[in-house]
Amino acid sequence: MTPPAKHCLLVIDDEPDVCDSIHDLLRRDFRVLKASSAAEGCKLMHENEVHIILTDQRMPQISGVELLTKVRVKHPRAVRMLFTGFADLEAIVAAINQGHIYQYLRKPWQPEELLDAVRDAATEYDRLVEEAEERDRLRTEIQSLGQRLQTLEQEVARLRGERK
């Protein structure tokens, strides 16, 4: 599978200015989708192939960690990133342990820092896709070899039966 021309990034933050800022910064390199709530983000993920999810930790109704933990079940290949303006050590630990977060970023960020982080996430997404494809290829090859072995064993049994 050839990687997409532009990776799709979903930004989820209840502050529209943050979503707009990230969109403006990254739109040249990425297809950027914006959501102002977890529910809107989930809807966009259902409608689009999202490669990278970047969500705020502190949002109404659900935290970023909770959202990314839920998203991981249905979209295991999507690279998950979390950002927040608060130095919440518990959130960082939970993000890593529960949501299997690729990277944690602090607000405010430097534009180059954010761009580099999302580029790294896109590279990680491509690596995960390649790894999954290789695993599928090897699984198919193992099944083929198993069938070939079974055929050879049957042929050996047939030849032994003819010798008697």
Order of helices and strands: EHEHEHEHEH
Q: Helix fraction?
A: 55-70%
Distance between the termini: 52 Å
Per DSSP, the total helix count is 5
Low-confidence stretches: none
Tell me how many strands there are: 5
What Rg do the Cα atoms give?
A: 22 Å
Roughly what is the average pLDDT, rounded to an integer?
Answer: 88
Structural class estimated from helices and strands: alpha/beta
Question: Main β-sheet, in a few words?
Answer: 5 strands, parallel
How would you describe the shape?
elongated
Q: Biggest sheet: strands side by side, in what order?
A: 2-1-3-4-5
> Which strand-content bin applies to the residues?
15-25%
Summarize the structure.
By secondary structure, the protein is an alpha/beta fold. It has helices spanning 16-26, 38-47, 64-74, 89-98, 111-163; strands at residues 7-12, 30-35, 52-56, 79-84, 103-106. It has a 5-stranded parallel beta sheet, sandwiched between helices.
Question: Explain this structure to me?
Answer:
- This protein has five helices and five strands.
- By secondary structure, the chain is of the alpha/beta class.
- Helix 3 (64-74) packs parallel to helix 4.
- The protein is elongated, with a radius of gyration of 22 Å.
- The mean pLDDT is 88.
- A five-stranded parallel beta sheet has the order 2-1-3-4-5, sandwiched between helices.
- The relative contact order is 0.12.
- The termini are far apart.
- Helices cover 58% and strands 16% of the residues.
- The longest helix is centred in the C-terminal third of the chain and has 53 residues, at 111-163.
